[in-house]
């Protein structure tokens, strides 16, 4: 279940636009900082099972001395695992890393370690911006400058300007996964107030478009909410699948960069965060 929700949401957050040339773009980061750690709970629901706590997930931003082509990078880490009764049916362990350019916010190197029951998928991808080719363990794939992997997409998108956004606005999505480049879209559907264990926030709501098939039966099966402040924290997501519904909720945020002006309810935890100015 972590894969269905985690990959769906993280991929479909990747609102990227092609650069005018092969030169690196410059993206100003104002939404997050090194040391940020987001913790999520994942739930599964069906008519047969009711609500089941499916597992936990983490998103982390770390500094690293590693460089690619002489360029400094961030190390993004996403990790998820199944918990409780779900482990008796299918044990899930997901681990992803993205070494992402600090100035351009494009991936240089991507790592995947997946275990879902008897299924295994391990891979590493190197992005070559001189030749616009991605080299994985299995194949070589052409891409255009601006494509994201499924982790860097989240952090790039959090820096997009939504000041003039209107209901119905669409954003094109280019993302790389499993040796293919996919193009989809995400639609803004309006403002909401969302509450999780982390707090109550004013939020922007989006509907990602997906391919109808074995997992999804509708082109817009889910919704994603981010906080309506400078942090743009992905705070809640839910998605309909053929066998039920999966839901993800933010329960803890550490190392948040900006004051949480989108927060409605006062919570003592917000005063324990070390903000950067």
In brief:
This protein has helices at 2-12, 86-89, 152-157, and strands at residues 37-46, 50-68, 71-82, 92-101, 107-116, 119-128, 133-135, 140-142, 170-177, 180-196, 199-208, 222-227, 234-241, 244-254.
Describe the structure using short key phrases.
mainly beta; about 50% strand; 14-stranded antiparallel sheet; about 280 residues; disordered C terminus; 14 strands
Describe the structure.
With 277 residues, the protein is mainly β. The protein has one domain (2-272). Helices cover 8% and strands 49% of the residues. A 14-stranded antiparallel sheet has the order 8-7-6-5-4-3-2-1-14-13-12-11-10-9, covered by helices on one side. The model is unreliable at 1-21 and 268-277 (pLDDT under 50).
Please work out how many helical segments DSSP would assign. Answer: 3
The side-by-side strand order for the widest beta sheet comes to: 8-7-6-5-4-3-2-1-14-13-12-11-10-9
Helix/strand/pairing category: mainly beta
- Helical percentage: under 10%
The number of domains: 1
Could you spell the SSE succession in H and E letters?
HEEEHEEEEEHEEEEEE
Shape: globular
Q: What can be said about the biggest beta sheet?
A: 14 strands, antiparallel
Poorly predicted regions are 1-21, 268-277
Radius of gyration using CA atoms only: 18 Å
Strands, total number: 14
Strand fraction: over 45%
N/C terminus separation: 38 Å
- Summed over residues and divided by their number, the pLDDT gives a mean of 81
């Amino acid at each position: 279940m972590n894969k269905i929700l985690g990959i769906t949401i993280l991929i479909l957050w990747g609102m990227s636009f092609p650069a005018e040339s092969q030169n690196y773009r410059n993206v100003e980061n104002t939404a997050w900082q090194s040391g940020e750690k987001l913790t999520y709970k994942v739930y599964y629901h069906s008519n047969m099972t009711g609500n089941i706590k499916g597992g936990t997930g983490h998103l982390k931003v770390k500094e690293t001395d590693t460089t690619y082509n002489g360029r400094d990078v961030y190390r993004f880490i996403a990790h998820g695992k199944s918990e409780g009764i779900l482990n008796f049916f299918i044990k899930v362990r997901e681990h992803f890393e993205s070494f992402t350019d600090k100035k351009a916010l494009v991936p240089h190197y991507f790592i995947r370690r997946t275990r879902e029951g008897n299924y295994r998928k391990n891979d590493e991808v190197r992005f070559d911006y001189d030749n616009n080719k991605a080299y994985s363990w299995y194949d070589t794939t052409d891409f255009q400058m601006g494509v994201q992997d499924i982790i860097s997409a989240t952090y790039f998108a959090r820096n997009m300007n939504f000041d003039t956004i209107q209901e119905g606005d669409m954003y094109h999505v280019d993302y790389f996964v499993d040796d293919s480049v996919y193009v989809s879209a995400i639609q803004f559907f309006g403002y909401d107030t969302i509450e999780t264990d982390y707090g109550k926030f004013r939020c922007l709501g989006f509907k990602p478009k997906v391919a109808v098939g074995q997992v999804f039966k509708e082109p817009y099966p889910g919704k994603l909410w981010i906080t309506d402040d400078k942090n743009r924290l992905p705070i809640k997501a839910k998605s309909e699948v053929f066998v039920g519904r999966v839901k993800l909720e933010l329960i803890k945020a550490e190392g948040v960069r900006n004051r949480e002006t989108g927060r409605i309810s006062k919570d003592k935890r917000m005063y324990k965060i070390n903000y950067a100015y």
